[in-house]
TrEMBL record:
InterPro entries: Endo/exonu/phosph_ase_sf. SUPFAM superfamilies: DNase I-like. It comes from the Bacteria. This is Endonuclease/exonuclease/phosphatase domain-containing protein.
Length: 342
């Protein structure tokens, strides 16, 4: 994996605030990238991305961004996505907008499923553009077909006065759906979740991430006969405390010894072979922090695990449109991608 150490300008937390930037890429550094992108017809794996997309930020938003850059990055890859797991969509209409933009710019046809079609307002400090937030799954219809009756949604836990209680925000309602992979003739369960920011739970689990990984595991395994299970999350909880992995991540990642093992794997951890310095380079939101994760059931395998840098996305924008707002990023969060193998 080609890792880059970024120069951070500012840190944005809680789905709002400033812009994280890396050193700008000059157009003459782009070179030429042969465009051979195609739909994935390989029966052995799915191409999956996960990102908190920050309500598709634009230059005119209070918390500005350049969201199309990530889609242009996808155009530089061998395959268009089979799955894009997304957090912070404004509702069904914005998820459909994203699916349509992908369809307009990538090979394949796309559709979307959301947790809440019309989420309740949350009075975001970033203003109206981020007042409404829900989770979504964008999927390629030529590869995946939803299985009727398998959609489930659930509220997750937040910390409050030393306890874990159910949150009330629309953006923390998780989503699960089963699909038929019509190319591989397999059953796939996909999930999307956004955990709260509240750090007022028990001292041993202040962000209630242990409660939420337990709940998410139960929901994801609620469909029988799955050949593959994949879910993405903005956990608002890091994987590492500076000297050791946090308990919730130990429990989630089957590659790390733990008394509780939910038997999930992390493709970025696998791509890094567990190297902490490599994982730090794969930060997803500021100061080396990883709070965004892609997980798949441990019986499966992954390859090509990668965190999409802002430079890579900026360069792709220049390549396909001739210009880029280098001062703006596609989100405050960096996306990850992987091929998840049956």
């Amino acid at each position: 994996m080609n890792l880059k150490v970024p120069v951070l300008v500012s840190l944005a937390l809680f789905g709002c605030g400033g812009v994280q930037s890396e050193a700008p890429v000059e157009p003459d550094a782009l070179g030429t990238v042969p465009q051979e992108i195609a739909v994935n017809t390989n029966t052995g794996f799915l191409v999956v991305y996960n990102v908190n997309y920050e309500n598709l930020p634009t230059a005119s938003d209070v918390c500005a961004g350049d969201w199309q850059d990530l889609i242009y990055y996808m155009k530089t890859q061998a395959y268009s996505p089979d799955v894009l797991i997304v957090h912070q969509m404004s509702g069904a209409a914005q998820a459909a907008q994203l699916a349509q933009f992908m369809q307009d710019n990538l090979p394949g046809l796309y559709d979307s499923i959301v947790s809440e079609a019309n989420p309740e307002a949350m009075n975001s400090p970033c203003g109206p553009a981020k007042d409404f937030q829900t989770n979504a799954i964008i999927y390629r219809t030529g590869r995946l077909q939803p299985i009727s009756g398998t959609k489930a949604t659930w509220q997750v836990y937040k910390g409050a006065n030393g306890s874990c209680v159910l949150n009330t925000q629309s953006r923390s309602i998780g989503l699960r759906m089963a699909f038929t992979d019509i190319i591989a003739n397999k059953k796939v369960v996909l999930g999307s979740s956004h955990w709260p920011t509240n750090q007022e739970g028990p001292a041993s689990d202040s962000g209630c991430a242990e409660k939420n990984i337990q709940l998410t595991d139960t929901k994801m395994r609620g469909v029988s006969g799955a050949n593959l299970m994949v879910w993405g999350v903005d956990s608002n909880e890091g994987d590492y405390n500076g000297s050791a992995y946090k308990d919730w991540y130990n429990q989630a990642n089957s590659a790390i010894a733990s008394t509780v093992d939910y038997s999930w794997n992390d493709p970025i951890y696998e791509a890094c072979s567990g190297s902490r310095s490599c994982l730090d380079d794969n930060w997803t939101i500021g100061s080396g922090g990883r709070i965004d994760f892609l997980f798949f059931n441990a019986a499966a395998t992954s390859s090509h695990g990668h965190t999409v840098t802002f430079n890579e996305a900026d360069a792709a924008d220049v390549q396909f449109t001739g210009s880029d707002r280098a001062d703006l990023n596609y989100s405050d969060h960096r996306a990850m991608s992987a091929r998840i193998h049956y």
